[in-house]
Amino acid sequence: MLVSDKERLSSPIKLILSYRNKNQFFYDTLRDFERTILESKDAIPTYRDKFITHYLGQSNYNIYRALTLTFGIEGALPLPVMLGSRSHYMAVLMGIHLRQCLPYFSIAKRKSIYLFDAWESAHPMIQSFVQNFSVDDVFFSSWQVTEKFRRMDPSHRYHWIPEGVDPNQYKQINYAEKDIDVLQIGRKDDAYHDQIVVPLQNEGVKYLYEKIKGQIIFPKREDFTIGLARSRISICVPSNITHPERSGSISTMTSRYLQSMISKCLIVGIKPIEMDMLFDYNSIIEIDRRDPVGQIRDILKNYERYVPLIEKNYQTVCQNHTWARRWLDMKLLMESAETRD
Fold first, then answer.
1. If you write DSSP's letter for every residue of 266-312 in order, what string do you get?
2. Which of 79, 265, 270, 285 has its CA 20 to 30 A from that of 136?
3. Which tens digit of pLDDT belongs to each residue from 40-62?
4. Cα-based angle 304, 310, 311 (whole degrees, multiple of 5)
5. Same domain, 107 and 132
């Protein structure tokens, strides 16, 4: 997506990146968003750990970290003026790693955060952080969480910006070349899985799933993107069903839905509430709990019937649900707020 000069921020944001290497595959979505922000020329990369290590020295930094973990005093240490107290700092967080925002949020002119995975157990911590550090704009990937915080804390600005996808990071192959019939990535909807696994295997359907808890089907990103492209059906279920102990009642559209669409898979699953707001048509095939095996059997037998829906999903995601589009929406909200302030 090309961005004109008029769509750029009036002054660049300093995007706080963690210097620590994150190899886990679930950080790919975060990295895609950070890369989109940086490629837009609206942000300057700021490497938190690298800078602090350089400023304090490695031995002092080790003490600094120990004090932080023990007493929770990060951000209270004297800071150099060169940190840029007149700057706008922003962080994109996967999980509640709020420490990444510090020490910069202690002295920044403006502060913004984007939060994936803001599950219910962390809400008191998030609210406390936003209030104590006077965060200007808080962006949540979940609509339910955004609405809850707006009701709970009307004195701060909370915005819903759904997850997105970078189409350039994914692949598509001809439908005739797809050789994985059914794919269920990550933790399964166990009740549904138990209904379909044996019958599908007995019928010779190629069904890939996590056989051992925590065992990643495609450990490398290239394998993951090719695996999605090779799949006819991608089973997608929101986290409140697959991870109820973590997610509570929050049902949100995760990146897996968009990754499946951009890879031209047909989604069979459960539709989060948000998807009715994001798509003006029924973009997935809802699971038939009464006859799940018969449903999958029929879909695979008549797969060409679903190709128009798959193509429509692909085009809709490319037009409306990319990280570039999400970033443009965020910029407009931040610019509007800054103008009012």
1. EEEE---TTHHHH-SS--SEE--SSSHHHHHHHHHHTGGGGHHHHHH
2. 79
3. 999 999 876 555 554 445 554 45
4. 100
5. yes
